[in-house]
Design brief:
single chain
Length: 276
């Protein structure tokens, strides 16, 4: 297995080196800004998949009540629950995997950039810093005080992007997603600064993309409650689901009529009788 993976990683690293060299040699960008430009190009190429991801998240949010009903009905049988959910997905054209496609396609870019920076040897005299507060994009992030600032920006940008990526998750999952950057920051601190710069750039792109799509894309209307799917379990009646008809509120009884066939007496005021 390793003999098959190593050549692929080597080829990915070669492609990433050519891309960075093109931005640096042809467009005369500094090495750090070449990483930023590479990140922007990758995210632009992933826009069609991102649109599918947004539509998938909207569909999941739209049909969330019906899916919760299925999960509640087959709570004791996980296999049956998964089968019914998959049938529900097919009937309503829902693709849960579409929300993961942009991230999956970024994994090869992340790996290739990691190895390219690991074996990075810039020509003498070239600028390998970023905004003059990170001395080297190939050094570990924590080797300079500027790297700690970059890590803080990473945590904030990752949390902000999580707000848009986990819109369909419940509160517990969303809280876990928000805490994950605080846990992974200790691992990312050992990465090259250029790799963290790539991660920060893609997070900021996700935040900007979320702000734009919320304004431009129309909100998906909620599903028709009377047009239920064949996989959606019927709701229990008010009588406990035993076939009994639900009790209806009693109609107010009409007030008894005072008319009993006798003429109604009209009381006159005493003052009017005296004036006569």
């Amino acid at each position: 297995m390793m003999l098959f993976v190593i050549p692929i990683i080597s080829q990915l690293e070669t492609v990433m080196r050519h891309v960075l060299n093109w931005f640096h040699g042809t467009l005369h960008l500094p090495w750090a800004w070449s990483i930023v430009a590479t990140t922007v190009v990758v995210r632009v190429l992933l826009v069609p998949l991102t649109v599918r991801q947004i539509h998938s998240m909207q569909n999941l949010q739209r049909f969330a009540p019906q899916m919760k009903e299925i999960q509640k009905k087959y709570k004791a049988d996980k296999q049956k629950q998964n089968e019914e959910l998959m049938k529900f997905y097919r009937e309503n054209n829902i693709n849960p995997a579409a929300s993961c496609l942009p991230m999956l396609f970024q994994i090869p870019v992340f790996i290739s950039l990691y190895y390219a920076l690991r074996h990075f040897h810039a020509p003498k005299g070239s600028d390998v810093s970023f905004l003059h507060f990170i001395p080297s994009i190939s050094a570990h992030t924590t080797t300079h005080w500027g790297g700690y600032i970059l890590l803080v920006v990473y945590v904030l940008s990752q949390m902000a992007s999580t707000l848009y990526m986990s819109a369909t998750a419940d509160k517990t999952q969303r809280m876990l997603f928000m805490l994950m950057p605080l846990v992974f920051v200790f691992v990312i601190a050992r990465f090259p600064a250029g790799l963290v710069l790539y991660w920060v750039t893609t997070n900021l792109w996700t935040v900007g993309q979320g702000l734009i799509t919320r304004r431009l894309m129309p909100k998906t209307p909620p599903p028709d409650l009377f047009k239920r799917s064949s996989r959606t379990p019927p709701k229990d009646d008010a009588g406990g689901g035993n076939g009994a008809k639900p009790s209806t509120p009693e109609q107010p009884k009409a007030a008894p009529s005072k008319a009993s066939g006798q003429p109604r007496r009209v009381r006159r005021k005493k003052g009017a009788a005296r004036r006569r």
